[in-house]
């Protein structure tokens, strides 16, 4: 079941979630040209990476646009406003990782 479905057929799917001291989520995305997903800021210390495997996208982080093409990876703080937008004429395929801050430690 997709986490998100775009108006033009794009989607995001959760592929993996890890637990432990450095929890991580891995998501597979497709974005059609011009399709976008505006994301709300996450909690402090979240870091996201997007690795484009085919096509192109525009990553907007805190109002600044960054082009990311096939074979490129971008990393950014997830606690600011950010948007993923399909760019070019072809479908953009990407893998996103969301690195969550460590949870509270426990002592015995």
UniProtKB/TrEMBL annotation:
Keyword match Oxidoreductase: yes
Pfam family, one: Cupin_2
Location of the Cupin type-2 domain: 28-97
Superkingdom of origin: Bacteria
Full protein name: Quercetin dioxygenase-like cupin family protein
Keywords: Dioxygenase, Oxidoreductase
Organism of provenance: Streptomyces echinatus
Gene3D superfamilies the record matches: Jelly Rolls
GO molecular function annotation: dioxygenase activity
Keyword Repeat: no
């Amino acid at each position: 079941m997709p986490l998100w479905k775009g108006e033009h057929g794009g989607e995001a799917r959760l592929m993996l979630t890890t637990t432990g001291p450095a929890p991580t989520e891995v998501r597979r995305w497709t974005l059609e040209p011009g399709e976008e997903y505006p994301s709300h800021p996450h909690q402090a210390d979240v870091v996201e990476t997007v690795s484009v495997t085919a096509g192109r996208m525009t990553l907007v982080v805190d109002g600044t646009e960054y082009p990311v093409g096939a074979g490129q990876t971008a990393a950014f703080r997830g606690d600011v406003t950010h948007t993923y937008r399909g760019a070019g004429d072809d479908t953009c395929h990407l893998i996103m990782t969301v690195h969550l801050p460590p949870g509270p430690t426990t002592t015995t």
